[in-house]
């Protein structure tokens, strides 16, 4: 399936906005997560956890889902396909896993934010942070970004079969046209 160039470019723009926005939202989340451990002010800890919940549900999750959905659509309507090239498969699997981990982790963040809303000052200063998830997520997202920029060669078995079938059709057309 292919689409007109204008539609493809629009879809690409939305995909890039979601994907890069996701990375930016992780950076915002990470800034809040880094504010928790050294905080000597309980209100900073409270605000950071509430902020992480808001950034998570209202920026991270929608951008992750948007990136995944538009990535699938891009694969379906471009020559790269969804399963033809290893880099696309790795990107798809990575994005799917990161989105799933994020969605399953966000209730824990909400629970911590709920605790932070009502906790005493001593308890707030003893709360941990969520740096590990954010750092790992950021590193993996940047890895997927680099993979999508450089697009290393390598066709999957499915890709080889599709390419051979396409070459056979082109050869058949040339033979028919010259006859």
What would your notes on this structure say?
- The chain contains six helices and no strands.
- The protein is mainly α and 179 residues long.
- The chain has one domain.
- The protein is elongated and about 85 Å long.
In short:
The protein is an all-alpha fold and 179 residues long. It has six helices and no strands.
Coarse shape? elongated
Beta-strand fraction estimate: under 5%
N-end to C-end Cα span: 29 Å
> What Rg do the Cα atoms give?
22 Å
Total domain units: 1
Listing every helix as H and every strand as E from the N terminus to the C terminus, the arrangement reads HHHHHH
Largest sheet: none
Report the count of strand segments. 0
Which range best describes the helical content: under 10%, 10-25%, 25-40%, 40-55%, 55-70% or over 70%?
over 70%
- Structural class from helices and strands? mainly alpha
Low-confidence stretches at least 5 residues in length (pLDDT < 50)?
none
**Count of discrete alpha- or pi-helical segments spanning 4 or more residues:** 6
Average of the residue pLDDT scores: 93
